[in-house]
Every structure is written in structure tokens, then in C-alpha cells.
Amino acid sequence: MLGLSKIFLKGAVLRAIREYNKYRSPEAKAKLIELKENELVLDVEGTFCRACGVWNYLDDFVYELRKNAGLEAKIVNFNEYAPEKIRVTYTLKGTKHSPVP
Fold it and tell me: Residue 9, Cβ neighbours under 10 Å: how many?
């Protein structure tokens, strides 16, 4: 349990998505699908740089969450459900540096 307000959590995740898309689009673009207190689901779409590795694009979102929201996240599942479209599930946990809502 993160202990963060729903409004703060959603705002923090949306900020992280904006930053992610700012630097990775058009090769990868994230879209929020579902947000729960301890989990979030993103769709990441794009051509991806295959030489860089698709995993790097998925893992980069973990760093954006940490930088923009003080949240730790871990990839627990991902699935390419259509060409160039990946659904990723992250678990969320707070850090001692998490901003106060």
C-alpha cells in the first residue's frame, strides 16, 4: 500500500508518461490503460529501436517514475498484443523520497 492520494498518484504517473513520451516518441509512446494503488498498466506503441532492445523502452518508464514521482516500479508482465504494441504491467511501491501528497 503506497499511502498516496489517488489524485496525487494519477498526476505523478501522468507527469512521468509526459516526460517519457517527450524523449522517446516517435520510437515509443506510452499511454495509461489502468491505474490501481499498487499497479499500473501501460500500452507502449512504436517502431522501437530493435538494436537498443525493446526491454530498454519498457524499463525506461521505471526511471521516469522515480525521477518525476519518487516512486519505485518493477515490470511484472508484458505482452506484444499487436504489431508494435506492447501492454506492460508494473507494480508500484513508494520510496522514502516520495513526495507528500
Answer: 21
State how far the alpha carbon of 68 is from the alpha carbons of 17, 18, 51, in Å: 9, 10, 27
Rounded-to-integer distance, Cα 3 and Cα 30, Å: 25
Distance CA 83, CA 77 (A): 17
Domains in the chain with CATH codes: 6-94 (3.30.980.10)
Which pTM was predicted? Answer: 0.84
* Tens digit of each residue's pLDDT (9 = 90 or more) over 78-94: 999 999 999 999 999 87
